[in-house]
Amino acid sequence: SDNSMPYNYLRIVTSLKKIQYSNLYCQLEHINDATKENNHKYVYNTTRKYASMHYLSVNLTKRINIGLFETVIWTPQRKKNSLEEGIEYFNPVIFYRPVEYSIGSPNNALMGITLNYKPSKLSTIYSQFLIDEFAISHIRNNDGWWANKFAIQLGYKLHNIFGIKNSSLLYEINYIRPFTYSHLQPTQNYAHSGLSLAHPYGANLIENVINVRYQRNRLITNFNNDFIIQGVDDLNQNNGYNLFKPYTTRTKEYDNYTTQGLKQLSIINRFNINYILNKYCNIYATIELINYTTIISNKIKCNQFVNIGIK
């Protein structure tokens, strides 16, 4: 997502008829700690890490698209901030799991599949299944093993709602198991500069998203509602939502479930109006109203924000 800070990357896209293959090589950072100097500025102690990603997208028909993706994140162990260790991951066509096994790697690898289907020209059903770690025997036993880490996304998008041109509706569900995106070494988690590379809230959550958009000439209105149920940590706990904690500090081995821990409900409503000042340069004047409500342990916190600007 665009939740994290910017980072250096190299992207290569290869297209051949109905097939598109993408390579993404990234330079990331992990923040170890921060110290405050006399001039009240913070100095961050960081560790450099790298990510290599493959994404294969295939149009099976005009209506059906499938995709396969994989990612590995690694940090140099022997030579600080050196690319020499992990050079195997720059191979543009291989699967990472065999490479990990061949070099005895402790790095963080994820893989998954996507499926998109267009019931009509104006509607799309999209889905994604991500696997961090997985053991089918524990799934069959239904024992809540901590390392069954995966995420599911299912969404539906419709254009021209009720025949209204230039309008769209999106509904999306996200389900993320505890400890997903985390790692034995926090430096190799799925994050950059203290922010998640995937879902902004981390893991151990269920989310519903509704988005309604309408455009008339140069005026664009947009309403978005996020409804998130998440299990967070109490004192001296690791229930799997915070991907900056090593999973070795987990609270329990079995009987883990999504939203376990201290229940937190977040409701985020956003309404923005954009006016296109220059359509050739994509310059917008915008005003946005945000209402952010969290409920945890029967305590309700509400915050309102107003954003005004040009983008």
Characterization of the model:
5% of the residues lie in helices and 56% in strands. It has 311 residues and is mainly beta. The protein has a 13-stranded antiparallel beta sheet with strand order 1-2-3-4-5-6-7-8-11-12-13-14-15, with no helix packed on it. It has a two-stranded antiparallel sheet with strand order 9-10. The longest helix has 8 residues, at 96-103. The relative contact order is 0.11.
List the helices and strands and how they pair.
Layout: E1 8-16, E2 19-36, E3 42-59, E4 64-74, H1 96-103, E5 108-120, E6 123-133, H2 136-141, E7 149-159, E8 167-176, E9 191-192, E10 195-196, E11 205-216, E12 219-232, E13 262-278, E14 283-296, E15 299-310
Antiparallel strand pairs: 1-2, 2-3, 3-4, 4-5, 5-6, 6-7, 7-8, 8-11, 9-10, 11-12, 12-13, 13-14, 14-15
Net shape: globular
Rg (C-alpha, Å): 21 Å
Overall pLDDT metric:
90
Structural class: mainly beta
Strand content bin = over 45%
**Strand order across the largest sheet:** 1-2-3-4-5-6-7-8-11-12-13-14-15
Number of strands: 15
Concise structural overview:
It is globular, with a radius of gyration of 21 Å. It is built from 2 helices and 15 strands.
Task: Write a concise keyword list for the protein shown above.
5% helix; mainly beta; 13-stranded antiparallel sheet; two-stranded antiparallel sheet
